[in-house]
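Last lecture ended with a question: if I hand you only a sequence, what can you say about the shape of the protein? Today we answer it with a concrete record. The protein is Carbon starvation protein A. Below, first the input exactly as provided, then the predicted structure, then a couple of comments.
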Amino acid sequence: MIMVIILAVLAMIVVKALTHSPWGTYTVAFTIPLAVFMGIYIRYLRPGRIGEVSVIGLVMLVFAIVSGGWVAESPTWAPWFDYTGVQLTWILVGYGFIASVLPVWLLLAPRDYLSTFLKIGTIVGLAIGILIMRPTLTMPALTKFIDGTGPVWSGSMFPFLFITIACGAVSGFHALIASGTTPKMLANEGQACFIGYGGMLMESFVAIMALVAACVIDPGVYFAMNSPLAVLAPAGTTDVVASAAQVVSSWGFTITPDTLRQIASEVGEQSIISRAGGAPTLAVGMAYILHGSLGGLMDVAFWYHFAILFEALFILTAVDAGTRAGALYAAGSARRDKPGAEENQLAAGEPAGDGAVRTGVGLLPASGGGGSARRD
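The predicted structure:
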């Protein structure tokens, strides 16, 4: 059950980031055929040419982000990539089922490989940008919501404490979902420590950079982005932005509707209200840091969607690998002896187990966290 909850939360992060975001949805979708091409290229077209396929992959990622802006501005193409949270949830479920039964070399391995370089390069660049800009941390160390009654996070410690541990520690969850892909990255056992433990150190580094990026955002913007829509704009509200600004300001974090609209415009989104899940918050912080530290190279919208792509890629790799592992556990729970068989067989096959896990992963965000943010 914990496995399903963790995977559902990870899926919800992606859903919240891509809801009514044609630019982001197109960019993430572009990586699927790109990864398949890379898998075929390195296996059949140019075996062993890792450098070539890496350069092609990185160039095409940049093209995906740039062309995503063109798609978002096109009245013809934008509707094809504009989805509600519930629609995105079930799209992810369908995609995940297909991805988890494909050969690892065809989709997961090339995308994991590509996302690794993107992840390391982006986080190192973000760290350098932070050192250059030395931004002020505007988020107070403590707020009145520390007791768990706040709009962003409310409720008991379960299951959020365990999700936090699983996402930021050398946990059993990581051992389970990485056991299928890590061996395929090793030429010999001597590399296990560097790749396995090194990967965990890098994830901890990501957590620190994400914390800094979130804390440089104005607290009013942070709470407007991460609070539930029902709290910020009750049913019947005509001006969602004005209502959100008023509610957040009443909590002691002054923010104006014009500021919220300006940030949404700068990052190339229709709205930033109730973009919970963490990914959009991190993307906004990263966008302004990278934009400022690079002297205004590319606009804020480019860096925002670059950050969304960066986050979605490594989250989806965790979801895919976790679902594969969960499918085996679900199938293994139905193990029984079959008369005449040489050894125990799984009564429920892996596809059946995958379907059960995927359904659970889809139902949780769709019923609770996959709701779409209203447009302004």
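Comments.
1. The CA atoms of residues 255 and 298 lie 27 Å apart.
2. Residues 2-369 form one domain.
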